[in-house]
Amino acid sequence: MLRASSCRLAIIFTIVSGLCVSPNPADAGTWTQLTNAYPTGQSGLMLLLTDGSVMVQGCDGPGGQSAFWAKLTPDASGSYINGTWTRLASMGVDRAYFASAVLPNGKVIVLGCEITSSSTGYNTVEIYDPTLDTWTTIPYPELNISSGTCALLPSGKLLCGSATTSNTYYFDPSNNQFTKTGSKLRNDDNEEETWSLLPNGNVLTYESVNSPQVPPGLAQYFNPSTGVWADTGSVPVSLGNTNGGIGLGPVTMLPTGKLIYIGDTNSGIYNPSTNTWAAGPIMPVGVTHIAQDRIGAPGTMLPDGQFMFVCATPIGMMNYDYRTNAITDITSTLPPRLLSLMQSVGGTPYRRMVLLPNGHMLFNLGIGIIWDYAPSVAPQAAWKPTVSKIVKATGSTYTLTGTQLTGLWQGPTCDDGAMATNYPIVRLTDSTGKVSFARTTNWTPGVATGTTSATVDFTLPTGFVNGSYQLAVVANGIASANFPVTLPIPPTYNYVTSTYNSQTKTLTLAGDATANSIAITLRGNVLAVEAAGSTRIGTLASNVQQVSYTISGDVIIVGNFNQSSTPASSDTVTLVSVKSSSTTMTFGSGSDSVNLTYCTIGTLNLDGGTNPSQSPDTVTYVATTIATKHVTNVP
Fold this sequence. Notes:
It is a single chain. The protein is elongated. The chain is mostly beta strands. It has one helix and 52 strands. Helix content is 2%, strand content 42%. The N and C termini lie far apart (67 Å). The protein folds into three domains: 20-381, Neuraminidase; 382-401 and 423-487, Immunoglobulin-like (Sandwich), CATH 2.60.40; 494-632, no CATH class. The model is unreliable at 1-27 (pLDDT under 50). Strand 21 (267-271) and strand 22 form a beta hairpin.
């Protein structure tokens, strides 16, 4: 990629209609041109929003810069081929070739740029809120941010780097603040690099600027736990531009756990477990990945495990197969119309890719024409996310628990724009096949998380019709098995174990780690234990809220609700008309409440569980007689 002062030619084409082409036997999928063209002449960066829509930037400025954005919404079947376009709010400044990410709060962040007509474009950050269709501007600590250099960390913070210094920063979405962290080795200035998140939370980069044309190349990684950049082993091949530029090709994590970086004519394979590099396969004879004007091109791992990327000379498409460790020229499998358009446009820097929730990939030619690619081979079962539980959170928001919610790799990449899709998308399909998407938030960023349990919140769209659905969670175009769900889901019930020993006349209650509400009422010689709200007794059916015990005389009541720590739960126990020789209640953190009405108690022992200044527990007495009272941690 040229530096910010460079200029590129913008070429605009007019295309008459879409075209669906069945590939020849050498191809694994089908290419289809989208029915509706982008609303403005040229189109650039594509980002998948967490509600399943795709926001796409315009690039009609003289250097490809633009403040214009539009959104592609899939049709009722979940297909993007006949999707519709909606104009979104424009950014505060126009920009081209910048870092970007979809944050766990569902918002989109763009950072700096290489080209802009605004004096503030190079060092401003803008955050887009899809729910409000608004942009908010935040200053960056330095004068320039690198083009595509950022990585979302498991902490939820964004690691980003400057274009003219070796400094790197954390961006915290919770307060929109930047904090300086470790500096790169060898004064590496982050320009034209593609950062890769590793399964252990570290971030890998190849030094595009510092690495010589003659190997070995240089690479380093960032450890968030220490805030320090450290060396990897040397790279045995040069991944830079053979013309002397600093462009770099795409990168992806492979199903093997290794990563492949595509260079101009070479590739390098990194092994995170040993922190070492090996030479990867070379390009076919006569093929280079990076154009002479140093423009890197995009690539992505597809849901079927094939790594597809664009090459520059000659214009075409390559494929890397991790099973054979070979790069193959698949240009001949492209539809003639698509290949003709690619050749006509030449080395345009605006081409981008994005993975979709239906398992397809969008390929943007940079001229307002976008194509859909559908692999014909299904992903391996081990790569799929899983869903184990869905519970109601609040309102129309639910919490989903499962595994592999953030996929095996980050998603499409190029050295001038991050297009990660390693976050969960929730898709709902009704009995007629109509597809809806629920906006997701609050996931934990990562890659290749395996069997580790994770959660994500999803919020149903406005106007959503309740009923029975097949739910799937999707990451990088790979969907889980369908999970039957009936919406709305009732609240999650909390359970209190209740047992009565007639020999010792002892009633024992044991609460769980969530908020419980129990009432104990004496009616004649029957002691009724009743649950209120979302509390259930033992493992009784959800429509049973009461259990009764026949007693003679008074009882001993022992209750232990000290099961919760974080988050704190607020328990409520009510005793009505009970005669008890001894009553002991122990609570944990939270705002607990004990209500005693018309009771006669010999000895009352209450422990609120936490300091009263931290937890406002309450005890009320209505016409209750108590011989001896021991109350601690309760005001």
